[in-house]
Design brief:
Spore Coat Polysaccharide Biosynthesis Protein SpsA, Chain A; 9-stranded mixed β-sheet; 12 helices; globular; glycosyltransferase; Nucleotide-diphossugar_trans; glycosyltransferase activity; Glyco_trans_2-like; Glycosyltransf_2
Length: about 325
């Protein structure tokens, strides 16, 4: 077993136009009580001073490494960093978030295993024009499938290196979930900490995080996530399986359908999509139990009407409700 002081943590941070919050994130790493780390910053073609800020910190601390690339997206940036890591563990931080001084140290409370994932809690910090609100989330054993975001987790490097796990660069949605599920396939040791030291920031200017992603992004993410639940991951708790399939597979598909009506797609394209998703009718019947009005409307039309009638109803509904309909597309 490695001694605590010998275990090195690689911290991966993709950076894109984060100048406003970047210093706070980097300073929070420098101030860590656990000092055996490397910070890999990948500047993904920033157009502000983010790249310069990264370079300035790297000149002051040899543990900080910076790579610059043309803008390719968060998955490309993270993959570049994964090619450079030298630590026993890997953890990921977003450039506008920050972590408390004990964050890395509390990960190290558990004995090292080369097939290990360590979980921590995190804070969701909402910073608006007037008030700040924070909620705390703690991971629970036996409920790890819906913890798909990579924040608050530390992965043993051999899981990633031995199986050549990378972020899917085609994805613009749920790329972290897909990466996480790939790691789950090979991990055998799961350790849970009740500590929460990661602050996931929602700033006022980011309030559009619910904005509609591209239709292709929704369908690609949903297809990949459904494959994991059907073929790669065994879930003995049927209710929990239903929850995960609905939340991370079917909901994305429904959001993809409705996003068709807020874009300039032709009627032919919309009908092609509605016909294509008919192949999932059995899994919708078995696992999709919506609570929202939008979800209920979709399910009723999906099960009872032809694609042509569905298209007419969805077009009218989205036209009548407009922006209000858009903002309610978190189809729980």
């Amino acid at each position: 077993m490695q001694q605590l002081s010998q275990r090195k943590i690689s911290i991966i941070v993709p950076v894109y136009n984060s100048e406003k919050h970047l210093c706070k994130m980097i300073e929070s790493i420098i101030e860590q009580e656990y000092s055996h780390w490397e910070l890999i910053l990948v500047d993904d073609g920033s157009t502000d001073r983010s790249g310069d800020v990264c370079d300035e910190y790297a000149q002051k601390d040899t543990r900080i490494k910076v790579y610059h690339q043309k803008n390719g997206g968060v998955s490309v940036a993270r993959n570049k960093a994964l090619d450079k890591i030298s630590g026993d563990y890997v953890t990921f931080i977003d450039s506008d978030d920050w972590v408390e001084p004990s964050y890395l140290l509390r990960f190290m409370e558990f004995p090292y295993a080369d097939d290990q994932i360590v979980f921590q809690g995190y804070f969701m910090d909402y910073v608006g024009a007037v008030a700040k609100e924070s909620t705390k989330e703690i991971p629970k054993q036996g409920r790890i499938l819906h913890l798909g975001a990579i924040l608050g987790k530390m992965f043993a490097t051999p899981i990633i290196k031995l199986h050549n796990i990378r972020f899917d660069e085609r994805l613009r949605l749920h790329e972290d979930h897909v990466f996480y599920y790939e790691c789950l396939k090979y991990a055998r040791q799961f350790d849970f900490s009740s500590y929460a030291g990661y602050h996931y920031m929602h700033y006022g200017e980011q309030s559009l995080s619910r904005r509609l992603q591209s239709t292709d992004a929704y369908f690609l993410a949903s297809e990949l996530l459904l494959d994991y639940y059907q073929y790669d991951i065994t879930v003995s708790d049927n209710e929990y399986k239903r929850f995960c399939i609905q939340k991370f597979g079917l909901n994305q598909m429904v959001m993809g359908v409705f996003s068709l009506y807020f874009s300039s797609f032709t009627k032919k394209h919309r009908l092609d999509v509605l016909r294509m998703i008919k192949k999932h009718v059995e899994i919708f019947k078995q696992f999709y139990v919506p609570n929202s009005l939008n979800g209920k409307l979709f399910l009723f039309c999906y099960l009872h009407f032809t694609p042509a009638i569905q298209d007419a109803i969805f077009k009218i509904a989205t036209a009548l409700l407009g922006r209000k309909f858009k903002t309610r597309l978190n189809l729980k």
